[in-house]
Amino acid sequence: MKLCLVGRLLAAGWLLAASFAAWSQGDKVYAQHCSACHQPDGSGTVGLAPALKGEHWQKLSQDRTYLPLVVLKGLAGRITVNAQNFVGSMPPWAEQISDADMAELLNHVQALQGFAQGAPYRAEEVAALRANPGSPMSSLQLRQRILGAR
């Protein structure tokens, strides 16, 4: 009985340590590739990069592929976020960020958004989405379909 309890505690400790390591990697990738435009806390930059948090994300997160496709394939065109208009282009990051790091980045962005959104992203899921065709304009079209906008 004691061995079973010790085993469970060790496993829980290992999982917790792995979670902290993964969190710090997502934070590092975000700091390297995203925070200059979207700010360290995800609040965005007026006229340049939209906030990565706000009520619109609750609706956008209903399509689990939206966030990874935007980061992998980019986003171009006019969007409105928190009553601010943005016209520009976010570059695709597929060539610069590995599947594992991309999964950690996506999980970090979800944490910035501050609400539960289901299972964490995994490298295998990112790899499958990476293999699909896509473009900045297709990301915009997906956003419009999810939000019901034209």
Description:
By secondary structure, the chain is mainly alpha-helical. It has one domain (2-147): Orthogonal Bundle (Cytochrome Bc1 Complex, Chain D, domain 2). It is built from seven helices and two strands; from the N terminus they run ααααββααα. It has helices spanning 2-33, 35-38, 55-60, 66-73, 99-113, 123-131, 136-147, and strands at 75-81, 84-90. It has a two-stranded antiparallel sheet. A hairpin with a 2-residue loop joins strand 1 and strand 2. Helix 1 (2-33) crosses helix 5, helix 4 runs antiparallel to helix 7 and helix 5 packs across helix 6. The radius of gyration is 17 Å and the shape is globular. The termini are far apart. 27% of the residues are buried.
The CATH topology corresponds to Cytochrome Bc1 Complex, Chain D, domain 2
Oligomer: single chain
Number of helices: 7
CATH architecture: Orthogonal Bundle
Name of the CATH superfamily: Cytochrome c-like domain
Detail the poorly predicted runs. Answer: 9-13
* Strands ordered across the widest β-sheet: 1-2
What is the CATH first-level class name? Mainly Alpha
How many domain regions? 1
What's the structural blueprint in terms of helices and strands?
Layout: H1 2-33, H2 35-38, H3 55-60, H4 66-73, E1 75-81, E2 84-90, H5 99-113, H6 123-131, H7 136-147
What's the short version?
The protein is mainly α and 150 residues long.
Features of this protein?
7 helices; 150 residues; Cytochrome Bc1 Complex, Chain D, domain 2; two-stranded antiparallel sheet; mainly alpha
